[in-house]
Design brief:
Layout lengths: L7 H10 L4 E7 L5 H11 L2 E12 L2 E8 L6 H26 L6 H6 L9 H10 L6 H6 L17 H10 L3 E5 L12 H10 L3 E5 L5 H14 L2 E4 L19 H10 L8
Parallel strand pairs: 1-2, 4-5, 5-6
Antiparallel strand pairs: 2-3, 3-4
Helix pairs in contact: 1-2, 7-8
Bound molecules: adenosine monophosphate.
Adenosine monophosphate (AMP) binds next to helix 5 and helix 6.
Length: about 270
Amino acid sequence: MSDGTLSPTDLVRQAAAAGVDVLGLTDHDSSAGWDAAAAAASQHGVSLVRGIEISCASNGISVHLLSYLHDPEAPGLLAEMDATRESRSSRAQRMTERLARDYPLTWEDVLEQVHEGATIGRPHLADALVARGVFGNRDEAFATVLASGSRYHVSHYAPDPVEAIRLVRAAGGVPVFAHPLAVKRGRVVGDDVIEAMVAAGLAGLEVDHRDHDDDARRRLREIAASQGLLVTGSSDYHGTGKQNRLGEHSTSPEQLERIVEAGKLELVRA
Ligand code: AMP
């Protein structure tokens, strides 16, 4: 619903066809896809973990925090998500203005790529640039003009991860740090920030992810073991927008059970 290339319904259908038995849906800063995904999950015999991916920042370093099985109406988290989505919209406009100085791109071009209910982000700018023929695909745009170090890049409002973890816990959710050591995406936080996140109630670390090499996974498993955190694996599938394949990484049944026990919402069971 936020920035993948499939609708939640089609995502569930593809997951079922790929043999996925439990699927997590974690749109950026939005639970707008949950109902459609839940209906499709029941229809296709897939169990669904409803979640979101919260865009956070710690001293300017991007941190993605997954929240699983929280109450979507909890006011604190809801207000924070609204603030982030609003800021994402003005940030996308500012990036478009910067890009428009050098490339044939208008705000209307971008809006054409944003479907109803989406969480606007760089993927939509990429799609607009691809539609204009400036780049061949999203990856090319992300590798150049949309990269976080690019002169066209603008940041958006994002809560501190420690505060976000408190809000997720208050909403009955299970907070898991997404791809904590994905160095190819940009700077990553140090152990001090992870420790502060654990103290605030972090439940787990996403370990098995294509942006982690073997060393990163080993280190994260060590941290998880020493801090009593659960470990997850996820494909971070975005449809055709990224190379990631559906179900390329997964979470063990034992770890899933820990998430379900700790979460306020139930799994939508197949
Ligand atoms: P933003 O949240 O607006 O800063 O955009 C970053 C998001 O774009 C990340 O969460 C990525 O998962 C997503 N994304 C989608 N397609 C790509 C791609 N081809 N390369 C890098 N990131 C991508």
